[in-house]
Amino acid sequence: MKIVVIGGSGLIGSKVVKTLLQQGHEVVAASPSTGVNTITGEGLAEALAGAQVVVDVANAPSWEDQAVLEFFETSGRNLLAAEAAAGVKHHVALSVVGTERLLASGYFRAKMAQENLIKASPVPYTIVRATQFFEFVGGIAKAATVGQTVRLPAALMQPIVSDDVACAVADVALENPLDGMVEVAGPEPIRQDALVREYLDATDDPRVVITDPTALYWGILLNDRSLTPASEARLGQTRFSDWLDQSGTQAVAH
Ligand SMILES: NC(=O)c1ccc[n+]([C@@H]2O[C@H](COP(=O)([O-])OP(=O)(O)OC[C@H]3O[C@@H](n4cnc5c(N)ncnc54)[C@H](OP(=O)(O)O)[C@@H]3O)[C@@H](O)[C@H]2O)c1
Question: Which residues line ligand 1 at a C-beta cut-off of 6 Å?
């Protein structure tokens, strides 16, 4: 089966490409670095010719409110139109658990716009909504840092390692379209302040986490439901502490 992975050079995309190739599929890793651009349309029709499935795991280069909205709207429109023209049978896209609860952030308004375009398109689809990647925890710490202090709420999360997200996305790409959503999450819930403390400890980072219920997450006031999945979510196997043990101080690079 021919499968095109849009964003095939990215963190998730490169792992999805590898997994599907290992299973014997014809896989095209499509992104600007391989001459396929969903914003300009460059290379899109050629990449999609003869494809049964398209997996969209692209991300916007800028997360500024207007830029990210324009990226996901333009990319989604161009990609879905090209898929309809090519007769693609299944569009799989990666989104974020709780997107409709996070609309105070421009990034999540853009992900919602992406999801709405998919639902309105004639192409059969499955939206995979994942929780935050372990690789993103350093970014959460960075965004909340002032000097040597990291202010974070104690809101519940259920983060997941990128390998487990990629496995779930690859599995979904080989299943029938749901015309609906599946959620994927890590094996255990953990509070955001505790998660970042554990990360900073493991990476010998001297910053101090202060628990602050009023601290915003990308402009959003979180509660315990904001970022956590429903009970029927597919769960990855890898625990955060095991990932930290394996990746050690390399985790600090992300
Ligand atoms: N971070 C999280 O915790 C989290 C949680 C849940 C869901 N997600 C979702 O996961 C998805 C993938 O994230 P990621 O971290 O794997 O992304 P990433 O590593 O930043 O990779 C982004 C990919 O998008 C490609 N891309 C950028 N502009 C493009 C364009 N115009 N046309 C085609 N491809 C383009 C890039 O290609 P080049 O390398 O060629 O530029 C790259 O392959 C995102 O949609 C995000 O919303 C993230």
Answer: 6-7, 9-13, 31-33, 37-39, 57-59, 61, 75, 94, 96, 111, 130, 132-133, 136
